[in-house]
């Protein structure tokens, strides 16, 4: 479990609610912004500045240690992802996260997925850049 809470928003959602948010890997990033969430039972405030806050999630991929070894990549490396279909594109700088037992799964936000016509469960081609790491 995380020692802090975090709110991940898409760029579109951030614009709608009037927030300028950083692209970050998690809510502990010092650039994360304060946010208050109000619901029927009360409110929760995250103070940001490294103590949990709001941000736009950086695109990343979860890999098992075995798959990472097969690709010769490690935690923190960057990969590219080729997506074919009606709006073919290559997404660059996908952060590698490695943990034993993880399934291979790319995490993009809704804006990124919609921009390229991506659908849940769709496959792509991972590209390990020559100058990785």
Model description:
The protein has 133 residues and is of the alpha/beta class. It folds into two domains: 7-57, no CATH class; 60-127, Barwin-like endoglucanases (Beta Barrel). Helix content is 14%, strand content 33%. A five-stranded mixed beta sheet has the order 9-6-8-7-10. A three-stranded parallel beta sheet has the order 1-5-2, with no helix packed on it. The protein starts with 6 loop residues before the first strand and ends in a 6-residue tail after the last strand.
Give short descriptive properties of this protein.
133 residues, alpha/beta, Barwin-like endoglucanases, five-stranded mixed β-sheet, three-stranded parallel β-sheet, 3 helices, 14% helix, 33% strand
| Overall number of domains | 2
**Secondary structure: helix percent:** 10-25%
- What pattern of helices and strands is seen along the backbone? EHEEEEEHEEEHE
Strand fraction: 25-35%
What is the alpha-carbon Rg in Å? 17 Å
Low-confidence stretches: none
In terms of quaternary structure, the protein is single chain
Total helices: the number is 3
Q: What's the rounded overall pLDDT mean? A: 93
- What is the architecture of the largest domain at the second tier of CATH? Beta Barrel
Number of strands: 10
Strand order in space, largest sheet? 9-6-8-7-10
